[in-house]
Write the structure tokens for this entry.
Amino acid sequence: MKIVLATSNLDKVKEIKEFLKGYEIYALSEIVKPFEIIEDGSTFQQNALIKSRAVFAKLKEQGLDSEFISLSDDSGISVDALGGEPGIYSARYFDLDENDKVRGKNANDANNRAKLISKLKVLNLKSSPAHYTACIAISSKFGDFTAHGFMNGTAIDEERGNNGFGYDALFIPDGFNKTLGELDNETKLKISHRSKGLELANFVLKSLKKTLVKRI
């Protein structure tokens, strides 16, 4: 069974490959010509399914639906003091206006973090309880499946560490005194929201693998 990841985020591809070592995994661009997917859902689950279904539809168009399944991840950080922002808009936070509308395509990791820091400073806060959410969606000829993973901790108002990506330099997981940006990859892989979601999703993957082998 081969898995196509519904993402062009190379950091996510690397992290997912490190966790799911028992599978043949491909980045989207290796199998399907990358295309725009409009993520207009209101939850992590909805957006994850939008991506996995869109990629699987492309696989089906190419006659690859018996050989491949698609797997997507939709994840983000939610900060309590900011009313749950940025949430599902984590990757697009810089472009999110005061009316919760995404304007433009200028967001990147650096300016997203800068916006979160500025929002905390406006409230005169150096930190706030926060959590990460990851929804893993799988689409296949046998249906769609999802699993969630979470990681609780604290968002801070200064960047610490250069490891990881996204908001990792601003997030201290519960039980640690270092940010994700300061932790080594092995530790991060054990505790991350994405790993927890993938661990649950792996039960689905194992079942699909057995089913596909039987059919062959």
